[in-house]
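Standup, Tuesday
Yesterday: got the pipeline producing structure tokens again.
Today: sanity-check two examples.
Blockers: none.

Example 1:
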Amino acid sequence: MKRMTRYWLRATALLAYCLLLWAAPVGAQADSLPVCPGGTVVETAPLPHGTAQKVTCPGTVREVYDHYRAAMQAAGYHLVVEAIEQERGGLAGTGANGGSISVTVSTADKGTSVVVDHTP
């Protein structure tokens, strides 16, 4: 059962990645999501059609996942992929203007690690 869940989560992450590659930079969606409360941006990197941001957050995977889920909805993204487990979770959404965003949440040594990939 655990193995099947791992494969499902990997397939979800692959789908989110494909959505990001497929999405064209059109219009203007929210440039970024608000960082989780008490979170720290560790790294920001440019992508061919957007940006990637790595954040470290206090709290459980569920708390951080819920924060980013609400932030995505508030920013106007339609959630197309949602997956949550005890140690990891993932979200992917598309904007009304064609932009896309994916959020990967996982446990880390010093809290919870988040990677946000955004294509405007």
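Example 2:
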Amino acid sequence: MHTNRHVLLGIFFVSIIALLAWFTLFKTDFSLLAERKQWSVRFAEAGGLRKGDSVLVAGMRWGRVEALTFDSSAGPEERVVVNLSLDRPVDLYPDYAIRIESATVLGGMQLSIEPGTFQSDTMAKGAKLNGEVVPDVLKAMGGVVSENRETLTNMIAGLDQIVNEVRGGKGILSRLLYDENLGEDLSRTVNSLNETFINLTAISADLRDGKGTLGRLLKDDELYRSIQTLATEITAVVDDVREGKGTVGALLYDENLASDFKSGVADLSDIVQRINAGEGTLGLLIRDEKIGQNLERITTDLAEGRGTLGKLLSDEEIYTNLRVISEDLSVASAALREGRGTMSRLLYEDELYSEMERALHTLTGTLEEAREAAPINTFLNTLFLGF
């Protein structure tokens, strides 16, 4: 019985020793053979750092704090000396940074080392190292509160006043909280927005299904190709214009045509100036008041039916007569084309034309003979009248 107890006690003792050894070797900075590096860093204050706190290099555990001492003979920025024990060596560059900072939000401190930017030169061994203390978040907040106590007090008083005004029914916020009509309006607005979102959802669904013009633009490959072809053609037209081809290209890039255009604009400007000066017929029409009065009088006479042209425009009887005449002329021209009547036969029958031509020749000959016999007739008449 006693032997069993001794065995159990021995097993328990060995387990405790093994557990302590495991924690010592693997859970602490214990190193049996490795040479540890000792550093000394000066700070203005410790910031709550204690012996045994972790030392981190670039966020990795690199050692621990060995000791903290206060040097009263040093300046205010170097009066706290922190001795570090590092597991491995680390090179520092001129822009290094060593800080005492919070390990967690709940508490605890650690010392953080940022080696700096890699350069050809490193800090010399034994060089004096200085660090800084990163303000604790809670302390920093407390400092901000202390520095702005009056402002915070005024803000709290203002908030209290706003709450009282809201409770008293003043302002938009009070209406939003207590006015039922405004609440109903807000509810209707929300419903309208909801309907709008529903419509937008339906529109997006139609677009996905290729419905409508925009949906076809998104889904119809043929329409897309047509638009792409149109864009290509427009690009070609623009290229032709840039190269001076076509009328538009010539207008934009042909210097001779541009010169002619400028000359034409100058001539047009000269014409406008002459018209404004009252020169020429158009200038007189625009600038001469007498001509304007005459035109006004003429248009008045035409509107009132005075004069021949006025009667032609306003007298229905004259219009009727002109229409009858035009109808008669139309009938006569139709008869001429169809070969009816003497005039039509004269125009279209060659035989009648020949007979008329012979008759005219005969008449002409008769008149010539009569004219030649006129002196003889005159002599005979005179002779016989004498008896």
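Quick observation on example 2: The CA atoms of residues 284 and 385 lie 75 Å apart. The chain has 15 helices and eight strands.
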